[in-house]
Structure formats: structure tokens, C-alpha cells
Design goal:
The complex is a heterodimer. By secondary structure, chain A is an alpha+beta fold. Helix content of chain A is 33%, strand content 40%. Chain A folds into two domains: 81 residues, Sandwich (ATP Synthase, domain 1); 52 residues. In chain A, strands 1, 2, 3, 4, 5, 6, 7 and 8 form an eight-stranded mixed β-sheet that branches. Chain B folds into two domains: 61 residues, ATP synthase, gamma subunit, helix hairpin domain (Helix Hairpins); 220 residues, ATP synthase, F1 complex, gamma subunit (Pyruvate Kinase, Chain: A, domain 1, 3-Layer(aba) Sandwich). About 2% of the residues of chain B have low confidence.
Chain lengths: 141, 299
């Protein structure tokens, strides 16, 4: 068994990552799960959370806003609704997005699907901020 | 033969036209590069998405399958067509090929006793079709090219469409758009997005048959994933059509403008020849008059 597997992270707008990877931690709908080469076939919904590639200090993290993961023994494909790498997050813009999402969420309370959408956007913004903070911490450490 | 003055004016106006079309070509070329990149960048996602829908769809029992997958029932009484055109013209046969296809499809469906409603993405489609099918146009979306994001496609186009489907306002939905091949070529593409077409499901079944050995685990379960996946798939297909159409539009406009520049150039050449000939003829005849005048004075 090889020690790596093919990993693809795609969003509707573009393919963000396509490379060999040794380990993933995925924010599944029913909790985080790890993926190593030879994982049993799995299709899972994602929740808003942090996707980690690798582990320890070499890890690269992405904030993802839900989507799907398709895991095969030699391949992992993540279809994320939105995804941002932790080093490219602009905290000011995200903060603004977050408050915008919060007001929209309040404004669309009657329309269930719209309000759910904005709630998700807000959660995503929160995750972005958190991930960014951790990135800064790692850098300063 | 036209007068010298008229010819001069004509030359000036053709030169202006050439100037303008050249500028438009440049603009289209610059836009094309960006929109082409985007169209290619979105393909992996929509392809993966399609694959996933297929592989899950084949594993869900017919009875419990959601309507987005199998439709409301057997009857096909009400069809929704979503057509993607540009907001502006001057891009060759880009708009007219979509419009022509929609016209013949509508005629065909109506002849078969099916009701048809239209959603126009892009102003041009609405402009032309409202004369003929004014009452059937349910929605018009314009200005999508200005800020083309997945979120917009999902919220503005896909959400109302899904809402209509859930309320039984149509049984199946097709999209028609120009798929991007290269700057010179676009292919008109029809695709059924609601419900998931049978052939696609059959293909998925086959692939699954001699594909992976063990069926994957689903988390949560198939139904729940499908409930998320299917509406999203509709939005993805629409977004893909949007970016493809946008890239095709710029390609078509660039090609059309390139032709226009060339036509203006050759017209200019012909006009200059005529102009110079006329000028020469005028000079010659003037000379003749002077010479014959002086000859007659001598004699």
C-alpha cells in the first residue's frame, strides 16, 4: 500500500488543490474524521469547519463551508461549497462579511431556506477568523 | 458615379467603423481570457458533482427517491426551458443560434401538447422571444455577466427555479446554452437538469457495476445526502452553463468583430480605388476642357 493518495479540493469556482497527500482531517456532517491511504469507500456531507491537510506544524488548513467528500482507498475528493486557505484570509473583509450575514439572517427570518443560507455564511466567516488566528499563532510561535 | 465629396464622407465613416470594431475586438479578447479560464476552472467541480449524483442515484430505491431525481410522475405536461444568451448583440450568431433552437423546441413541444414556460438569462433572449412567447416567459435575469459568482447563480436563478418545481409549476427542466470549445467555436448544448435524466442514471449504474468492488458508506444516509446534493447539482449545472455561455459570448464577439474589422478594411480598399479613379477622371476631363479651350483660341 502506498503511503499517499490523490487528493482534490474543488469549489464551484475552481480546483484549489490537486496533489498527493498523506493525511487529511475532514469536517464531516457527523463529526471530524481522518483519512489515510486505503480508507474504506465513503461519501459524506461536510459541515462548516476546518479541513486539515497533513498534521503537526506542516499542516495546511482550509476553512470550508460545507459540501461533500468522496473517499476511495486511493483517492479523496472534496467538493466544497466555499473554501479558503488559512494564509489567504483577510480578517477585515471576513469580519465585514460576517456582520453582513448576521443582518441578512435577521432580515430573512421568515424565509427558511434563505435564513439557513445566511446562517451558514456567518458560520463560515467565523471559521475563517478562527483558522486565521491559528495561522498567525503558528507563525509567531 | 458618386460625387467626390460623397466618397470622401463614406471613406471617413468606414474608417470610423473599423476603428470601433477593432476596439471592441480588443475588449472582447481581454475579457475572453478571463472568462475562458473561469469556464475551464469550473469544469472539474461540475463533472465530479455529476459523477457523485449518478453513483448515489443508482443506489436509491425508486420508491423513496425525491422528485428532483425522478420527477413528479410519468406525465410531462409542463416543461421549463432555461436559455442562456448575452445581454448585448454584436456577437455573430451567438444569440440567434440559442433563440432558434428554443423556438423550434417550443414549437415541437407545443405540437405534442406540452405546456412550455421560459426563463431567459441574458436580455437578448427576452428581447426577441417576448414578441412571440411573451406570456410564457416566467423570469428574466440580466446583468449576470457583470459579477459572475456561484452564489449569485444559486440565489438568483437556481433557487426560484427549485421553488417553482417544488410547487409543481413544471415537471421537467432543460437548459440550453453555448458550450465553450475555443474562441472560434461554440457548440449549442441541451441538457436536462430536472429530473436527473435516465441515460445519466443508466450510465452511472453501469460504471458502478464493474467499477468499485465495495459500495461506499454514506454519512449521514443516501436520502439525506441526496436531499442536499440534488438542489446543489441544479445550481452547479446552471453556474456551469453561465460561465460557459459567458466565455462563448466573448469568443463569439471577438470573432465577429475580427470579421467586421476585416470587412471594413476591404471595403475601404475598394472605396479608395473608386475615389482615386473618380478624382483622376475629374482631373482628366478638366484638363481636356482647358486644352480644347486653348486649342480653339489658337485656331
Amino acid at each position: 500500500m502506498s503511503v499517499t493518495f490523490q487528493f482534490d479540493l474543488v469549489t464551484p469556482e475552481k480546483r484549489l488543490v490537486s496533489q498527493e497527500e498523506m493525511m487529511l482531517t475532514v469536517p464531516g456532517a457527523e463529526g471530524y474524521f481522518g483519512v489515510l491511504p486505503g480508507h474504506a469507500p465513503l461519501v459524506s456531507l461536510l459541515s462548516v469547519g476546518v479541513l486539515t491537510m497533513g498534521e503537526g506544524r506542516q499542516a495546511v488548513r482550509y476553512a470550508v463551508a460545507g459540501g461533500y467528500a468522496e473517499i476511495l482507498p486511493d483517492r479523496a475528493t472534496i467538493l466544497a461549497d466555499r473554501a479558503v486557505c488559512w494564509d489567504s484570509i483577510d480578517p477585515v473583509a471576513v469580519e465585514k462579511e460576517k456582520s453582513e450575514a448576521a443582518t441578512q439572517e435577521a432580515a430573512t427570518r421568515e424565509d427558511e431556506s434563505a435564513s439557513r443560507y445566511w446562517q451558514k455564511q456567518r458560520a463560515f466567516a467565523a471559521v475563517c477568523l478562527e483558522v486565521h488566528k491559528r495561522y498567525l499563532e503558528r507563525d509567531s510561535a | 458615379m458618386a460625387s467626390l465629396k460623397a466618397l470622401r464622407q463614406r471613406i471617413r465613416s468606414v474608417t470610423n467603423t473599423r476603428q470601433i470594431t477593432k476596439a471592441m475586438k480588443m475588449v472582447a479578447a481581454a475579457k475572453l481570457r478571463r472568462s475562458q479560464e473561469r469556464a475551464l476552472a469550473t469544469r472539474p467541480y461540475s463533472m465530479q458533482m455529476g459523477r457523485m449524483v449518478q453513483s448515489i442515484a443508482t443506489r436509491v430505491g425508486k420508491g423513496s427517491a425525491p422528485p428532483l431525481l425522478v420527477g413528479h410522475g410519468e406525465s410531462q405536461k409542463q416543461v421549463e426551458l432555461v436559455l442562456f444568451t448575452a445581454d448585448r448583440g454584436l456577437c455573430g450568431s451567438f444569440n440567434s443560434s440559442v433563440i432558434r433552437a428554443v423556438r423550434s423546441k417550443v414549437a415541437e413541444l407545443r405540437a405534442a401538447g406540452v405546456q412550455v414556460t421560459l426563463t431567459c438569462v441574458g436580455r437578448k433572449g427576452d428581447d426577441v422571444l417576448k414578441r412571440q412567447f411573451g406570456g410564457s416567459i416566467r423570469r428574466v435575469h440580466t446583468g449576470m455577466g457583470k459579477r459572475l459568482t456561484f452564489e449569485r447563480a444559486e440565489q438568483e436563478i437556481a433557487r426560484p427555479l427549485l421553488h417553482d418545481f417544488e410547487h409543481g409549476r413544471f415537471d421537467s427542466c432543460f437548459i440550453v446554452y453555448n458550450a465553450f470549445v475555443s474562441a472560434m467555436t461554440q457548440t449549442l448544448t441541451w441538457r436536462q437538469i430536472i429530473p436527473v435524466p435516465e441515460e445519466a442514471m443508466a450510465a452511472g449504474e453501469e460504471e458502478h457495476g464493474h467499477g468499485q468492488a465495495a459500495p461506499p458508506t454514506y454519512e449521514p444516509d443516501e436520502e439525506e445526502i441526496l436531499a442536499e446534493l440534488l438542489p446543489r447539482n441544479v445550481a452547479v449545472q446552471i453556474f456551469q452553463a453561465l460561465v460557459e455561455s459567458d466565455a462563448s459570448e466573448n469568443g463569439a464577439r471577438m470573432t465577429a468583430m475580427d470579421n467586421a474589422v476585416r470587412n471594413a478594411g476591404s471595403m475601404l480598399r475598394r472605396l479608395r480605388i473608386t475615389y482615386n479613379r473618380t478624382r483622376q477622371a475629374a482631373i482628366t476631363s478638366e484638363l481636356m476642357e482647358i486644352i480644347s479651350g486653348s486649342e480653339s483660341l489658337k485656331g
